[in-house]
TrEMBL record:
Pfam family, one: Na_H_Exchanger
Keyword vocabulary terms for this entry: Antiport, Ion transport, Membrane, Sodium, Sodium transport, Transmembrane, Transmembrane helix, Transport
Annotated localization: Membrane
Sequence intervals crossing the membrane: 44-63, 75-98, 135-153, 160-180, 186-209, 229-251, 263-283, 304-333, 381-404, 411-431, 443-464
Topology versus the membrane: Multi-pass membrane protein
Entry protein name: Cation:proton antiporter
Superkingdom assignment: Bacteria
InterPro entries: Cation/H_exchanger_TM (IPR006153), Na+/solute_symporter_sf (IPR038770)
Annotated Cation/H+ exchanger transmembrane domain residues: 65-462
Family indicated by similarity: Belongs to the monovalent cation:proton antiporter 2 (CPA2) transporter (TC 2.A.37) family.
Organismal lineage: Bacteria, Bacillati, Cyanobacteriota, Cyanophyceae, Oscillatoriophycideae
Length: 512
């Protein structure tokens, strides 16, 4: 998510009224693409594209191998993509490494291959490596934007609003409990100073909406009440996480909290999400008219992507996250009659870009922090055990806050909130860049992120195991995507239901 912050800061001068003095630190020191390529001669600059292509070859092979093996073992394919990402990344093969993880051109097997086969000079290797890594990171960000747009299309505004108050409670508890437990525990048990402890506590509040929603979609639970509560809570949790991040970043930088900064983020997040949903009821008719007027290829897909990218841009430029804008765009277009067709059109783009995101998350994860033979890791490992326990308990208890719902899987709701993923890494990265975190505490946070990210997908499969999939309120059968695309499967099932069963039979369907 570092690129989101970087792009937000880039556009701030264009929208000074939106900034209100907010300065969110950029994570990592990678130079922008154009600035990097200007440092190269023409021959070396031409090798950036081959480097990107080789990176994508690694990504796609790793994602398919990992996804297929994971599927055969009964786990969600996304878990295999994360694991193979770790294998090809900084932790093992060094086929896909990034500057923000501390790697250099000499660490990249792809750059070494370019030097051996394409005549890349050692003097230009670092600049080519930075440019290639930046392009892959941008593709990764596009992948998670497309993923959240797809998830928004699969979701239903009415269902989310029906569980809105439940999702809000789950999200608030899921932020407050881990934050308070982590901060207080580090200060009292380990003697960590206040500001680093607050930073670590803030990292515990994160929830990776990308990972959770992908797993729920793959196992056919996205349309269930549990899935909708988890999804709504994860969205709210993401907004709260951005606010917490801005507060602790300000605290680390100046030693005091910028109240105007916090107020701005709260107001902008609320207005953006509620405004998107309310305006969507009027927008979708205009969208359909435009799409129907276009007769060339992509008449439905291109306007939808334009809308998703505009919403993502607005989310980023007001210092929220681009993925929130993409999710809101998907929710808005879910109101259209052409949603099922649009879901099928988005699917190939998702298949192309989403694996880049998950493999890159794994590739950027350095499991070297788990090595107890390194003296600096030992103190971090002890703190990591504490943080992992708080991270798990702090999210599991959220399920107990769901009330007024009979026969709901509260444990599944808590488990769905566990993974920190890329959001947790952003907290760790900004804390490291600010100088607020010691090496052991930084290692502990990274270890917590690794464990929670990798344990959530198989745990979700376990807590939902052998539980019948209920029919949703919209009479759209819930998904059961073991080996088929959940979007296509839902489309076919809905079409069958609409074509074979008249309206008068619907009460009997529900009772059956």
């Amino acid at each position: 998510m570092a690129d989101v912050f970087a792009w937000s800061n880039f556009f701030t001068p264009l929208f000074p009224k939106l900034s209100l003095g907010i300065a969110i630190p950029a994570w990592g020191q990678a130079a922008p693409i154009l600035a990097t390529t200007h440092e190269l001669d023409a021959d070396s600059a031409a090798l950036v594209l081959p480097g990107v292509l080789l990176s994508l070859v690694v990504v796609y092979i790793a994602s398919k191998i990992g996804g297929e093996l994971s599927n055969k073992l009964g786990f969600p394919p996304v878990l295999g993509e994360l694991v193979t990402g770790v294998i090809v990344g900084v932790s093992a093969l060094h086929l896909l490494v990034f500057p923000e993880s501390g790697a250099h051109s000499a660490d990249s097997a792809i750059i070494q291959l370019l030097q051996a086969t394409a005549g890349l000079s050692p003097e230009s290797a670092e600049a080519v490596f930075n440019a290639q890594s930046e392009v892959v990171s941008v593709l990764s960000e596009l992948g998670v934007i497309v993923l959240l747009f797809e998830i928004g299309l699969e979701s239903n505004i009415r269902h989310l609003m029906a569980v809105g108050y439940q999702a809000t409670i789950v999200a608030c508890v899921g932020v407050a409990v881990p934050f308070a437990g982590g901060t207080a525990g580090l200060m009292l048990l380990f003697g960590v100073p206040a500001i680093p402890a607050i930073f670590a506590g803030a990292a515990l509040t994160a929830t990776s909406i990308g990972i959770t929603s992908k797993v729920l979609s793959e196992i056919g639970r996205l349309s269930t009440k549990e899935g909708q509560i988890i999804l709504g809570a994860a969205v709210i949790d993401d907004v709260l996480g951005i606010i917490v991040l801005a507060v602790v970043a300000s605290l680390a930088k100046t030693g005091e909290v910028d109240v105007m900064n916090v107020i701005y983020l709260i107001v902008s997040a609320t207005v953006f999400l509620l405004g998107s949903i309310l305006l969507g009821r009027f927008f979708h008719n205009s969208f359909i008219r435009v799409a129907n007027a276009l007769k060339t290829r992509g008449g439905l897909l291109i306007p939808a992507l334009v809308f998703a990218f505009v919403m993502s841009y607005l989310g980023a430029v007001i210092h929220l996250e681009a993925i929130l804008g993409a999710f809101a765009a998907g929710l808005v277009l879910d109101e259209s009659d052409e949603t099922l067709e649009l879901q099928k059109l988005v699917l190939p783009i998702s298949d192309m870009l989403v694996p880049v995101f998950f493999v890159c998350v794994g590739a950027k994860t350095d499991i070297g922090v788990l090595n107890p033979a390194v003296p600096t890791n030992r103190e971090g490992l002890i703190m990591a055990v504490f943080l992992i326990v708080i991270a798990i308990i702090g999210k599991i208890v959220t399920g107990a806050t769901v009330f007024g719902q009979d026969k709901i899987n509260r444990l599944a709701i808590g488990v769905g909130m566990i993974p920190r993923g890329e959001v947790g890494l952003v907290f760790a990265g900004i804390g490291s860049a600010s100088g607020a975190l010691s090496k052991p505490l930084e290692a502990a946070i990274i270890m917590m992120v690794i464990i929670t990210t990798f344990m959530a997908p198989p745990l979700l499969r376990v807590v939902f195991k052998d539980e019948p999939v209920p029919v949703t309120d919209s009479d759209s059968p819930a998904l059961n995507g073991h080996n088929q695309s959940p979007v296509l499967l839902e489309s076919e099932m809905v079409k069958q239901a609409l074509s074979q069963k008249p309206m008068a039979e619907k009460p009997e369907q529900a009772s059956s």
